[in-house]
Amino acid sequence: MKLATKYIHAGAHPDPSTGAIMTPIYQTSTYVQSAPGVHQGYEYARSQNPTRFALEEAFAVIENGKFGLAFASGVAATDAVMRLLVPGDEVVAAHDMYGGSFRLFSKVHEKMGIKFIYVDTSDANNVAKAMTPATKLIWLETPTNPLMNISDIEAISTIGKKHNCMVCVDNTFASPYLQNPLDQGATIVMHSATKYLGGHSDVIQGCLMLNDQTLRDQLYFIQKSTGAVPGPQDCFLVLRGIKTLHVRMQRHCENGIQVAAYLRQHPKVGKVYWCGFEDHPNHAIAKKQMRGFGGMMSFTLKTDTIEAATKVLSSTKVFSLAESLGGVESLINHPASMTHASIPRDQRIANGLSDGLIRLSVGIEDADDLIADLAQAIG
Ligand SMILES: *Cc1c(COP(=O)(O)O)cnc(C)c1O
Question: Ligand 1 center to residue 152 CA distance, Å?
Fold first, then answer.
């Protein structure tokens, strides 16, 4: 089945009690039993909710996985994966990734006895070199937030398999429309569904998709035991969002091409980070594993200072200055002070994320209006 048809029908079954085409929002905490232990498969809503189950089925379908699990946020989904580990286990993680993932690893899980080794995963050899008998998980993000670095999912999954080690890919930036890591050999896919899956900047949610039944049972146990489940209303919103993922992503990609090209020729713009450029260091890998390059990009000004960046960040009228990404409306962001403020400055600079870097989430408005807005803001 083609993507468009898959996304519209994923997880959708007419409601058994009425035939409603849209899965109802089952706003309930519990379910009535006719005798102790005699029920219809639903006991308590932290463990079972029909709206969440419909969404979890959709999650599995859109990533070509057997199973999907929904969480209260992207970081809750990431946290659930980390809870598969025990003290002494090692994680090889991307040195350039979402600041909240880094904060979760370094401030929460490190003190639980998990060791994190950060490498530049855009070269798979760095991952191979970092593997030890204690490595139980490779944590990838590709493209990375905000520098748009690309890692070879297939090559790194092969390294993982050789070492009997799980590979989890944060696929938030690409969305399932552009990239399906399970097909490339990854063990688990994680998304912040807050971003492209929800798509309308109105919900916080995360998810995991995978094929392995044993691992799914462990993660389901963690999901219900730690309780970071999304409510049914939020599940409904993401189910609705997924139905238009392909249409939105098509436009994000079209607008992304135009905005990236515009920025690149602008005399006041320094470097543009976007994996669709043919001279992007990992463009060949991006082309191999992605169907398009999306609307996420970052750039610096030739005058790469906080002051110059701040002027642009405060002058846009169509792009809103805000954290987050992947919604229909365009956003502009200053990683150093906003999304990536939790990464120590030295480390941030060493990773190539300068004080003046500006990140864009190019939305699905008219591309001419977006370019005109950047033109007046950059001046
Ligand atoms: C936003 C984001 C997360 C965290 O997701 P939340 O839903 O905000 O908890 C993780 N990874 C990436 C790449 C993100 O952009």
Answer: 21
